[in-house]
Amino acid sequence: MSLSTNLQIDADRLWQALDDMARIGPGIAGGNNRQTLTDEDGEGRRLFRQWCEAAGLRVDVDSMGNMFATRPGADPDATPICLGSHLDTQPTGGRYDGVLGVLAALEVVRTLNDLGIATRRPIVVINWTNEEGARFAPAMISSGVFAGVYQESWAKDRVDAQGLRFGDELRRIGFEGETPVGTHKVGAFFELHIEQGPILEDEGIDIGVVTHGQGLYWLRVTLTGQESHTGSTPMGKRRNAGLALARTVELVHETAMAHQPAAVGTVGHMEVHPNSPNIIAGRAVATIDIRSPHRDTLEAMREAIVSGIDALAEPLGVKAEIEIVGHFDPVAFDPECVAAVRRSADRLGLSHRDIVSGAGHDACYINRIAPTAMIMCPCVGGLSHNEAEAITRQWAGNGANVLLNAVVDAAGVVA
User: For residue 208, what is the enclosing H or E element?
Assistant: First the structure.
């Protein structure tokens, strides 16, 4: 049996599944708050498992909570073609970041079932645990353990802002599986995701063919000065951690601008203690996020920021401590998998362009151990990590159709 040139998913069914999942952990402004290992995450996982089992998939959960839903192939010895993303969200997250990739992967299987298409290789739909890193840092922690980047014991000892431990919360919601992490085989991995940027929409392009992913550093900076009265402490006698924080924000911006193009830097997390109107800040904590698709650039930015913070803190009488709390190198995705995405878009008559992912994704870690590619669809205004995040039914369907054709191409059709 040859691959049909118009193999298409049921876009209405996919859109309904996205809507049904969004009802779990609703946000306050139309999005979602389904942070990892919360009760809401557990409820979303149970619904996903129910849907997978109804589609005839065998669902297995590993010891990091990663969910694997398998559709058997005709060749029981063939390594599977895997596809998926994540169901967890930011505290004020959208309805599609990550979720589209998981539910589009499920829709691929549902479509193959509807059409009676058998594949030579098994197909596995995956939901990775804690991609966002919003509750437990770092991001992509469970795919990182799967790929050998992190130790499982270290990952399970991560704590959230309330001091709750990752491993305890995973067990509490009932998703600490018995299968050792990393034992599931991956022949290739495809991840569909919203772009989280404005390029595709601005250029009127249907599909982003992701060739590379940016590397990243998260640097946690603790600035320690001395608390004192705002009215009675002379300006020249102050050890103001807040002032050091303000200059750090400026330093990060200037460093990113000095390494253009394709470099970004942000201080998105900031805390000032004791945060009182009439007390000079004695301590400030911030997390710096720097990214570039070029490793040399990324390392140069890190070095400039670390040395720059030390230089700005010392004259202020402030002590600076800097810890790397997240890091991954830039990624070049597998050329053959990337070519399969291009062929699928061409076959479907969809416009496409190469694109570099500005965000981290589970695919970035899986690419270390198996051939991997990513597919992107536009999102309105490039907005993501925001409850106003939006896509259209057509964009979702286009991305899922490219995913379907690329996966079937890789898995092989049985006559």
Answer: strand 207-213
